[in-house]
Sequence to fold (294 residues):
Amino acid sequence: MLAAQQRQDPNQLSILIEKNLEIPTIPVVAQRAIKEMANPDVNVSHLTRILAEDQGLTARVLKVANSPLYAQAREVKNLQQAAMIVGLNTLRGIVVSVANRMIYKRFGKVEHAMWEHSVAVAVAAHAIAVKKKLPHRDESFVAGLMHDVGKVVMNNGARDAFAQSVQLAAEEGLTSIEAEHQVFGFSHVDVGGLLLERWALSPRLGQAVFLHHDLELVSTVAEGNEDLVYATNLADKIAHTLQIGTLVPPKDEPEPIDLAEEESASYFDLDTTAMADLVVQVKELYEAQHQAMV
Ligand SMILES: [Fe+2]
Ligand SMILES: [Fe+2]
Fold:
């Protein structure tokens, strides 16, 4: 996988991906709102007027703003309150999360499983960020939620080929990356990385999505951005351990693995007990949060 990633010229890879798949654009209202929030002199009334142009987006943003993970003492009833009560950083994360949910072309069994997995990884990445007092909690949630967005795009545009790659991975014991390379010639991290670039989200988020299976390349990211890559990698492993949103259940009961032996767990200095506590905590958070995210 690593060799394949290093070998392929990024431009050639983008051409190959776009020949086969349509990279969805970010909903235009979300894009304008994110741009407005990046403005240091952001005008909250202007921002809420932009968001209010898309009623579907607004309804979802308010639902997420009132979900257990973000809920404050008082209910958020409108966008103005959302900006004031949860704050602009969190609101930006919520808008991106909602935009990400809107790219699903259909929402059947496979898509539901993919979404559940994403939400589990998002709450796990957020929990790691809280536990380790990392500076980018909202971004951790978004990184978790979007880490496998490439799979959504592959499934949107090439459903049979994507199903074939999932089956191939299960039957041959391959990683999803290996199986996707065999079927598509590229993998979900290539597609996800391209989508994040097109959506002009932060390079830190793009790196976390692109490298979540590839810690060997973490030394290539800018200083200070490593945390998000490791948090996304570890969160993914926690969600797999909990078997939330598994696309094809393994034939045999998987061997219990000690997550503390993962490189990303050592990076955060999390031992066996700390990891076991985190897994329990993530399960509870997921149960509380997932309904609000659909
Ligand atoms: Fe992945
Ligand atoms: Fe994943």
In short: Confidence is low (pLDDT under 50) at residues 1-5. Residues 2-23+105-293 form a domain with the Hypothetical protein af1432 fold (CATH 1.10.3210.10). The chain has two domains: 2-23+105-293, 25-102.
